[in-house]
Predict the structure.
Amino acid sequence: MGSDIDAARIAVRESIDRWIDAVRARDLDAMMNAYADDLVGFDVMPPARHEGRDAWRRVWAGFFENTEGPIDFETSEMRIEAGADLAWCHLLNRVGCTGKDGTRHEALVRATICFRNSDGRWLVAHEHASIPMPMPSPGACESAAQ
Amino acid sequence: MGSDIDAARIAVRESIDRWIDAVRARDLDAMMNAYADDLVGFDVMPPARHEGRDAWRRVWAGFFENTEGPIDFETSEMRIEAGADLAWCHLLNRVGCTGKDGTRHEALVRATICFRNSDGRWLVAHEHASIPMPMPSPGACESAAQ
């Protein structure tokens, strides 16, 4: 069992490294290989929730369309917990990118990535990315629900 | 195995229900029963990351100190995935509360809750709560790192 857990931990780490390489390379197909069909994604920006791999693909297609040049990723505080059939990872990502209008964006993004072992492949079934924000105003509810 | 997974799913659901009841009752001790000592928490507001149960307790003590009256929770889109030794749940929470200064706060909060089976008790080892926000400005990095 211990060695299975170690193998799961390594597989999860490799999946994350491949995903980051694919984002840097702006390779949408390679990036999407990480995900299960029934993925539920919570992205940094509204809307609050994306259901399914295709919806998540559209989010990332939009990101690549709206940015240009290098995408910086600097991960820290990564922790992986692996089990027999599920695993998760949480980490911080210092992300830097440049919008098509030339605006530079930088943020410290928290990410939680939940994996499921599907016939020996560790696939991401849930992903939650966010930036902490000050106390929400009464209007936050409406904008988040868009 | 199937019945173990069903039992895990029920235990996770019960833990979440107890946690919500405890928040509504402003019962910090009861709420903290859900968590493992080595919890890593990502809260809605900065700082980006809290390490350990005691740090998380301080976050919630602050929330209770800075609000008064009823705390509204309306959950939706809850999905639980349970395994032999790990489980996770993700959901939306429509949260409403009133600050000590009388300001009403309402928000749609996404939550991802990661559980570990510790000698038969399903404890939260990681929690990520957030509100989606518009594209971060160049200053977001600094405020998030506070």
Chain A touches chain B through 50 residues (CB under 8 Å). Residues 31 and 133 of chain A are 27 Å apart (CA to CA). The two ends of chain A are 45 Å apart (CA to CA).
